[in-house]
Here is the input.
Amino acid sequence: MGKINVLSQETIDKIAAGEVVERPASVAKELIENSIDAGATAISVEIKGGGIEYLRITDNGVGIEKDQIPVAFLRHSTSKIKDAEDLNNVHSLGFRGEALSSISAVSKVELITKTKDNLLGASYIIEGAKEISLSDVGAPDGTTFIIRQLFYNTPARKKFLKAESTEGSYVFDVVEHLALSHPEISFKLIINGKEKLMTSGNGSLSDTIYQIYGRQIAANILDISYEDELFSITGYIGLSIIARGNRAFEHFFVNDRYIKSNNLSRACEEGYYGFLMGHQYPFFVLNINTIDGAVDVNVHPTKQEVRFENEPKVCEILTKVINSRLRRREDVVEAKVEEEKPKFNNTFNTIVSTPVRNSSSIESSTSVEKTTALDTSSDELIADYKSETSSEEIKPVKLPEPFEKNRLEAIKASITSQIRKDTPYERKFAEKNTGGEKYEQISFLTREAVKEHKIIGQVFDTYWIIEYDKNMYIIDQHAAHEKVLFEKTMARLKNKEMTSQMVSPPVIISLSQQDILLYERYHEAFESLGYRVESFGGNELAITAVPGNLFSLDPKQFFLEALADCQSYKASDSFDIIVERVASMSCKAAVKGNNRLSIPEVKTLINDLLELENPYHCPHGRPTMISFSEYELAKKFKRIV
Here is the structure.
């Protein structure tokens, strides 16, 4: 063994920095969380060069006393906790006391801060963990951190950073998550001199979602609320129309802290079972608040992972709450026609604007911009105008805080006056043209509505067209029948009314040893559906009975497909989930496309849909029906200009 050395403080700081400071986004996260803990109601973030060369965080929080500043940069110095017992009751975002020490060890830091009780503020400069100066300076209340040349003294770390645009997108994600978890705080993000995100800080999560993601997302979300003696769940979940091909729009917060959890993600996705197609992932912003001691946040250096005292219980409730909320909402997909948006004149250049993220990339050249006032009648028209105008043409004038209400009303009146209402169709639909009021409860599938249905006919021997309440509905007969069969099967299972049809002679199936083990693991699910299977020696099974309602299907093929589907099941899946997924295979017996049905058969199908909790999606998540409004058709035929 070589000689044991005691490392210098400088080396210790650089090693510790590796645990906390991974990239500019890590620095932004730690400093913004400190601003939140300091009681800030407005936080501004500015980066240049992806945050590697320049990162500034400004807040209006309580500030730091001058004599406390050097202490704040020492390792494990914190105002959030006093001893180990406090770790069971952490309510602040930061508490370890490592952030400032770690950041200053690998960058050049300038701190400007002032408390409200002091006449002057203080300026503190520290580079590579070495103090440069501490002096008085004039400053507003609050704190500003300026971080320059991140990893300037650790080039090995710096070379592993990604492109500036990529690092900037990571900072964007951090600001986005913190804005969603704290809608009561106004956030602003400036990247290379351009404002990319701003939230109002009015305390409304739905407004914050609107300001970050725009109109299309905000118009298709449902509120979630659940509470028991251990924890509560609040937030919003998205309808199927705004699902994505990855998990980028899944946001979890535990006690207002952004976290990543595969178990929670899977639990939420289970709640969407039957509402989304395969390989689609939902949009949701959910905050789980727990009682003291029910969650351990001291698990990971970045605090993005937590450990629940009873995680299976949390996951189970998440699944049930989401599924229940989705079933309470009519979810007919409304088709929209593409059209050229109207132009407005440059009198709108004086409107206060906030760029809103339009996709997962902050580099999109077609990002939508919206006003900070959240009235849809003006917001959407302004957004339409700005989406058609180059960024060079838009030079918005910022209104002082609080916003001038009278001026905003005048702006909205000016916008409204410029909408053309020359033709009868324009007058007829002027009030409907809001663009964001979709998915209202239109009650297409009710006993009263069915009496008013006007069945137009069938096209392509697959789709049925029905007129009702100024809307044209198109029903996919196969998807609709799939859902009817599935729901009926599940109802029979629940009421233990499943029947079996004997097969003579028995159907013999040869399986691999893995398939044999798979069947032995899930045989109860098959038996609950009505299957009766016996060992036939070796790797062969004999099917002696099949589900009574599936007798028309090939028993061997159906059994093999259902068994193959079992390979995707997880060990944590409950018996009910497994049975439900096996039962979803009942859709194989549904009427297919390219089969002509009669009017009475379609009426029977619609009446069957009336009895379902969720008639709007087949068991695989595909829509069973879509609709075109009269207004959308009028636009397509240029009756509305």
